[in-house]
């Protein structure tokens, strides 16, 4: 329930705005312009993105607490996650730029870069690193382990797509059936949004937990982190800072 609670609170806040947007746009008394509709859509996307960052930071904090034998609670992890939002956003932004650059060059380099930078966020949170430093740290930790990261992400994507398709299929059929009845279309669209959020609440913690475990596994294999922590409980943050910032794909 810890993972569901951590993910559910930010996602339900985002869902509330999505539902409001769905019914406001379709209300009889609302006469918004196309620009207003676009702006509402952008705001909805931003709120959903911030909610995902919030859940991501809180989940990594919870896994870290449990891994290091510390008590973890939904309220405590969410409260601490608030101070990590900027860092998580920074890591995500730099990672996204690096992946985009790889995708522009060729598809495969983009995928490879994504796999190498997958533990940037836990590195930033656990080791209290800056976004650029965390990206470089992830690049070094995942050296020789991009294949493991790829398999992990691939399995998650298969599960997420399958779950989303199964849950949303009935609502998609209903939306298509009532496409000429706007009031019913609103209802079924709202139901689809609720279903999508529920799937996300249940499924998204899987990749976040797996990424956290992957991060600690890499540190155990490469730095004997388990022995280091047994000798010094504060050693989860004792790692030298990166020499550079965002790594080159050729490094």
Return the domain count: 1
Mean pLDDT level: 82
Approximately how much beta-strand content do the residues carry? Answer: under 5%
- Structure classification: mainly alpha
The sequence of SSEs as H and E is HHHHHHHHHH
Secondary structure layout:
Layout: H1 2-25, H2 34-67, H3 74-82, H4 85-105, H5 107-116, H6 120-127, H7 131-141, H8 146-177, H9 182-223, H10 225-231
Helix pairs in contact: 1-2, 1-3, 1-9, 2-3, 2-6, 2-9, 4-5, 4-6, 4-7, 5-8, 6-7, 8-9, 9-10
Describe it.
With 251 residues, the chain is mainly α. The chain has one domain (2-237). It is 79% helix and 0% strand. The chain has 10 helices and no strands. The chain has helices spanning 2-25, 34-67, 74-82, 85-105, 107-116, 120-127, 131-141, 146-177, 182-223, 225-231. Helix 1 (2-25) runs antiparallel to helix 2 and helix 2 (34-67) packs parallel to helix 9. The mean pLDDT is 82.
Protein traits:
251 residues, mainly alpha, 0% strand, globular
Describe the structure concisely.
This protein has 251 residues and is mainly α. It has helices at residues 2-25, 34-67, 74-82, 85-105, 107-116, 120-127, 131-141, 146-177, 182-223, 225-231.
């Amino acid at each position: 329930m810890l993972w569901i609670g951590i993910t559910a609170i930010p996602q339900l806040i985002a869902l509330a705005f999505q539902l409001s947007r769905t019914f406001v746009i379709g209300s009889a008394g609302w006469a918004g312009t196309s620009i207003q509709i676009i702006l509402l859509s952008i705001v909805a996307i931003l709120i959903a993105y911030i909610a995902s960052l919030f859940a991501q930071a809180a989940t990594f904090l919870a896994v870290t607490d449990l891994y290091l034998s510390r008590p973890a609670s939904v309220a405590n992890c969410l409260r601490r996650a608030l101070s990590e939002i900027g860092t998580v956003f920074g890591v995500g932004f730099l990672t996204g730029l690096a992946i985009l650059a790889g995708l522009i060059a060729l598809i495969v380099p983009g995928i490879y870069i994504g796999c190498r930078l997958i533990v940037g966020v836990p590195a930033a949170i656990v080791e209290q690193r800056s976004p650029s430093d965390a990206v470089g740290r992830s690049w070094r930790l995942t050296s020789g382990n991009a294949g493991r990261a790829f398999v992990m992400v691939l399995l998650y994507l298969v599960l997420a797509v399958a779950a989303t398709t199964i849950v949303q299929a009935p609502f998609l059929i209903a939306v298509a059936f009532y496409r000429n009845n706007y009031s019913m279309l609103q209802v079924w669209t709202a139901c689809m949004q609720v279903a999508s959020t529920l799937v996300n609440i249940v499924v998204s913690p899987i990749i976040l937990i797996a990424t956290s475990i992957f991060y600690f596994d890499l540190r155990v294999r490469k730095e004997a982190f388990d022995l280091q922590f047994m000798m010094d409980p504060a050693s989860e943050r004792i790692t030298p800072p990166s020499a550079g910032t965002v790594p080159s794909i050729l490094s």
